[in-house]
Write a structure and sequence with these properties.
CATH topology of the largest domain: Chloramphenicol Acetyltransferase
Radius of gyration: 31 Å
CATH superfamily of the largest domain: Chloramphenicol acetyltransferase-like domain
Distance between the termini: 60 Å
Number of strands: 19
Largest sheet: 7 strands, mixed
CATH class of the largest domain: Alpha Beta
Strand content: 15-25%
Length: 408
Amino acid sequence: MILEMKVPSPGESITEVEIAEWLVEDGDYVEKDQAIAEVDSDKATLELPAEASGVITLKAEVGDAVEVGAIVCLIDTGAEKPEGSDEKSNEATEKETAPVQKEAEKAPQPVQAKETYASGVASPAAKKILDEKGVDSTTVKGSGRDGRITKEDAVNAVPSMGTPTGGNRGETRSKLSMLRRKVAERLVSAKNETAMLTTFNEVDMSAIFELRDQYKVDFKNKHGVGLGFMSFFTKAVVRALEMYPAVNSMIDGKEMISYDFCDISIAVSGPKGLMVPVIRNAENLTFRGIESEVKRLAIRAREGEITVDEMTGGTFTITNGGVFGSMLSTPIINPPQSAILGMHNIVERPIAREGAIAIAPIMYVALSYDHRIIDGKESVGFLVAVKEALENPTELLMDNNVKKALEM
């Protein structure tokens, strides 16, 4: 029996996918549920499992755009699995690799060009042409006897437009994945279709450092996840969104939609590009809940297991360029959202504290926002509220009860 495998729908509104990579070859025997291909949609990269066991016939090539519901391969379910295929493949591999060294020894070695006093020397006629062109003879490879530069070599020589280095000047060209193309379109769209501005501030992370130093070991031992910065930032953002609801809104035509919940998107760099999985109802999560969800989503994104549903929605985004060493940036809004908070690296810097110079761990933060619905007063107030919560987390994020907040 021949089974026709069709492209399943990866999610609502997705009409086609792109074959990113075949994990098997035409004519291979595959097992049921074995991953046979990776497909890119405009939102995620997903694995395509075999629907039955049998011999596979591929009907699409890498890079092909295939509509949802189209046939991508055939599986002959009546074909029997070759006996001892694993053992034979191992033996074949050994047999193929064993003679390599012997063959390499037997292979004739390339004849090296003979080096003489004439190598790289231009004939009088060639030298005159090179001088007129302003070409250094040492940059020209001679085709004459013993490497001598001929008149023809000089005529064909191209003057260098810069300092000759003798280095490689090759280039490669590769097709962008559907996901990367969609990300590019969304970023350009966000720049062109929103009145995007960015406001900046700095945060003294001393209080958070002290809390983490005191409780991170016990927190990890009890909950199985680390006490990172993302839970503090998420808590601070939720508090600020409740204070400034316009930041937790988006434009739909001539209307503004505001939300009474906080679905926080977190930007994660995955093997196929930027992913933005969503922490649902972050306002209801504890520090442990946020850290557990961040870890779960980040792992799924980096392993290519994230689903479209897990990346759909989101009312506000947090991105952390600090993990790559970024000091400051202007993050681009994740449409249709209206704002995004950028975190950056933490560096010890001199600051004024109580009339004296002190050294403190400082992080620069940036809020990019859509000025069409968020005014300067609200954007600055929002970022100041985030700063206040991060600099005084015990009072503003933990109700002056650290152990209860961390469930210690």
